[in-house]
Amino acid sequence: MPSKKKVVTPTIEKAVRSGKIPPSISVPRGVKTWKDAADWLRARGIEDIECITPDLAGVPRGKMMPSSKFTSNTSLALPSALYRHTISGDYPEETGNFRYEPRDSDLKLLPDLSTLSVVPWESDPTAQVICDIVGSTGESVPYTPRNVLKNVVNMYRDRGWKPVVAPEIEFYLVAMNEDPDYPLHPPKGRSGRAIQGGQGYSIAGINEFDELIDDIYHFSEKQGLEIDTLIHEEGPAQLEINLRHGDPVELADQVFLFKRTIREAALKHGIYATFMAKPMQGQAGSAMHIHQSVVEIDTGKNVFSNPDGSASREFFHFIGGMQAYVPKTLVMMAPYVNSYRRLTPDMSAPVNNAWGYDNRTTAFRVPVSDAAARRVENRLPGSDANPYLALAASLGCGLLGIMNQLEPTEPTGDTANEGSIDLPRGLLEAVSLLESDPALAEVLSAEFIGLYAGVKRGEFETFMQVISPWEREFLLLNV
Predict the structure, then answer these.
(1) Could you say which protein family the record assigns here (predicted)?
(2) Per the CB 3.0–4.6 Å rule, which of 79, 291, 388, 424 could disulfide with 166?
(3) Among residues 193, 134, 217, 149, which one has the least CA distance to residue 396?
């Protein structure tokens, strides 16, 4: 049977110069109208499009279809039960405010055309678009992750403000391991040897994986994703990607796509990339630090700074809100049992509720900057967190501090990670704290909190069914 003949289209740049397509269609990411979308897809010879949306865990869910069907006003839907299952695919028992919808009715996928981009690792020309979730009559669904974050951003907008964020995402490269019973190990680099720990900011450590990193940059460029910097972290084959600051929803979208991009680039080179918070015993965990500031929509001025350059009352109230509420929303930043293995002393992660100026041992660090760039870094979230929910929780806590004029403690100038641990030590404790304060329902919605808490309790019950190597080693013959 003869092979299918591919139609070779001219480059986008050449098509723009010849006037065949408008310059607005030449951008790698995002369009404004459905006509622009059709032109954008046609100019690239796109055959298929993936309509994706994050579930509660941040896993891409959705549907794939021919691009011709996508632009023909096709109605797309997903079952509401998608937001009621655990990371392992189980459906928890109904408890507390966690209830199933008896009909398991459809939720509609509403494509956000500003997120349209190619899928550069696919062999056939393929595009992707991130979708919002709405009800059958177009109403917003409050418990879906993108909507939870949008609602928090809208609360800032109602005050004439716009939050600005810049995430930093850490992850490990690990050798392929098909058996989950065996520990993970760092992969071999171009030297033929597995890289060791203690390589923080090592250029040689990055160079071990030059070809993989080139693919990450290449894939990112094709999708219109901007990487600010890339460094090697402390752990063996642990890397960190820093993103440029911007709108919270846009940056959450970028983290959502970056995770997928990095995994695909790693698989191309026969290794895994993992965003698990604590993948290897004895090594540092992986964080998703979040830099946050707030600006006036009309003027662009930093709300955290007074006209004379000093720190504003809103700045201190924001920190006060972080201190008061982040421990209660920690389950949105540390969502799994494994997450709390990272939040332990001597593992390069804060285990406190302190803040300080340029102090990396505190949970909330204020980096050195001028007045225009004054910001607060939240160092508690793990890279395993759903970026939409981690940003929503962090920004929501700061906003509650401003709304209630909460005062922070005195800044910490010493090492803050010595002594007692000021955070929840496990998943169930963190879930209970999320449900404990009615103020959190103001910014996150009671419906989301009930749903999320039920799913997390279900995940804990699934975890409790597994017997760990520690139990077999120390209990089998000793008790």
Answers:
(1) Belongs to the glutamine synthetase family.
(2) 291
(3) 149
Contacts of 47 (CB under 8 A, 6+ apart): 66, 67, 124, 125, 126
Tokens of 290: 């979040």
Tell whether domain 153-444 is in CATH 3.10.20.90. Answer: no
Q: How many CB atoms lie within 10 A of CB 41?
A: 23
Please state which architecture CATH assigns to domain 12-141: Roll (3.10)
Beta bridge partners of 293: 164
pLDDT digits (tens, 9 = 90+) for 54-92: 999 999 999 999 999 998 877 899 999 999 999 999 998
Residues of the chain with CATH 3.30.590.10: 153-444
Contact 24, 36 (CB under 8 A): yes
Cβ(388)–Cβ(288) under 8 Å?
A: no
Contacts of 276 (CB under 8 A, 6+ apart): 172, 286, 338, 383, 384
pLDDT tens sequence across 349-394:
999 999 999 999 999 999 999 999 999 999 999 999 999 999 999 9
